[in-house]
User: Fold this.
Amino acid sequence: MICNKKFRRNGGENMKKKGIVLFLLSALLFTACGTEKNKTEETDKLTVVTSFYPVYLLAQEIVQGAEGIRLENMAQPQTGCLHDYELSISDMKLLETADIFIINGGGMESFLEQALERYPELTVVDTSEGIALLEEEEHHHHDEEEEAEAHEHEQEHEHEGNSHIWLSPARAAQQAENIAAALSEMDQADAAVFAENAARFKAETDALLQEAAQLNLPEGTEAEVFHEGFAYFAELFGMEIASGIFVDEYQVPSAKELTEAADEAREHKIQFFLTAADDGRIYAETLAQETGETITLLDPLTTAAEGNPSYTERMRRNIQAVAQHWKEAAT
Assistant:
């Protein structure tokens, strides 16, 4: 070893310098080897990439305690739904590392064909497989020009139905089971963990269904919905949808449309105006004020929340929000 070599006295200073250089090179080599080892250990894990935050929430439930999984989310946590989403360079780089790409399905990921053209060997898991989707609510259009533009947009992004299935606890449990089954095929060492997590999550979603059923709304209770996904909330509570007003860059309610919706709400004595904290909220508040009601603000789970609460925690808050609104309306 270098440190045990003896040097002649007259060359000691030079040899001392050489010794220092060799020591530093050895240290760098050791560090590089350590880094490479860590990198190898990390790449030994199965890299699972989810398309956007709701799917990430469900995948989190399944991979808890699985040592062989590295879970990543593609779309930024504040993206929201993936309507008209376009893949970025960073998305492409992440997909290049993926062993499995888990999507919501049901037509939500309109960019999927583009991704598969770039990465034809990418393994895709469609969590909507085997799940019955609700039909999409009809959009309100205001004039012929806007109707034609919206129709063209809908044709370009035709869905198989209402793809916001994660907002139904029963369907979310099915999505989680599909994730567990797919991961078990590729990571058999953690298969028992996946199965246990899926069973636990199923029990939690069953509890959510029971909590929603306890609300026991009168038959025929109607709601105005201001988010496409909230049709699943209406189903959860046994509500009928009077109408849906959805806001995006292709459609904004006109004054005439809002007046008609307010008249309808008064005529039907609608007490629930289900909205998220998005562009639809202002229209929900306008209609609620016109009819002497208040909005019910719900969480579509499409973005990250402070403290990173679980799927079950966030859905329970939604159930509690509806229950609280009904309690106040009944007094």
